[in-house]
């Protein structure tokens, strides 16, 4: 190996270590193998997650990119690719067709809540409620609820489908993302 290649390799290693250290200082978890930076917005971070390519494609197809880049704040329950794969065959393809943009928008906005709600706040509200659920509304107008089971937060849609929060409190410049393992569906 030449001296210039060795120096270049050392520089890359140092840059990677500095990046990891910088990311560790933010307190944000990694998502989909990518660092999530609190100074970036929801869309800027989501496009880097290998686990959210379907969600990003859907957000683009529904023309919601600009909205999710706005000031917010928003709380997004972000389903992973595997969650979309669990839907009946052809569902995602059908939703991505231009003539189904309204339904796609309704599905996606059923995952978005106005405000910046941490997992700790969700847990606190659920535990303090008389029925064990924290009730709130998505931007779509759909009712959502949260419950704590076995130390995990579960988000329920109106049909009773539950998505477990697998990664909580991914802070963004315009809100917070909680990664979920299920697509929440409006009625």
UniProtKB/TrEMBL annotation:
Gene3D superfamilies reported in the protein's UniProt record: FAS1 domain
Pfam families: Fasciclin
Species per Swiss-Prot/TrEMBL record: Limimaricola pyoseonensis
Signal peptide: 1-20
Alphabetical list of InterPro entries matching this protein: Adhesion/Biosynth-related (IPR050904), FAS1_dom_sf (IPR036378), FAS1_domain (IPR000782)
Domain FAS1: 39-184
Superkingdom, natural source: Bacteria
Entry protein name: Uncaracterized surface protein containing fasciclin (FAS1) repeats
Keywords assigned by UniProt, alphabetized: Signal
SUPFAM superfamilies xrefs: FAS1 domain
GO cellular component: extracellular space
């Amino acid at each position: 190996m030449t001296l210039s290649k060795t120096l270049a390799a050392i520089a890359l290693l140092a840059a990677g270590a500095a990046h990891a250290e910088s990311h560790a200082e933010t307190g944000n978890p990694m998502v989909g193998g990518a660092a999530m930076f609190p100074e970036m917005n929801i869309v800027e971070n989501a496009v880097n997650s290998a686990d959210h390519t379907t969600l990003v494609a859907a957000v683009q197809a529904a023309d919601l990119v600009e909205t999710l880049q706005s000031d917010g704040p928003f709380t997004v329950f972000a389903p992973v690719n595997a969650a979309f794969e669990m839907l009946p065959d052809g569902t995602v393809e059908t939703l991505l067709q231009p003539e189904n943009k309204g339904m796609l928008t309704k599905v996606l906005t059923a995952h978005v809540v106005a405000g910046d709600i941490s997992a700790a706040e969700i847990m606190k509200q659920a535990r303090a409620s008389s029925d064990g659920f924290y009730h709130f509304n998505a931007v779509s107008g759909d009712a959502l609820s949260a419950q704590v089971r076995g130390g995990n937060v579960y988000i329920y849609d109106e049909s009773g489908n539950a998505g477990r929060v697998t990664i909580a409190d991914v802070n963004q410049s315009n809100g917070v993302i909680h990664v979920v393992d299920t697509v929440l569906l409006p009625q």
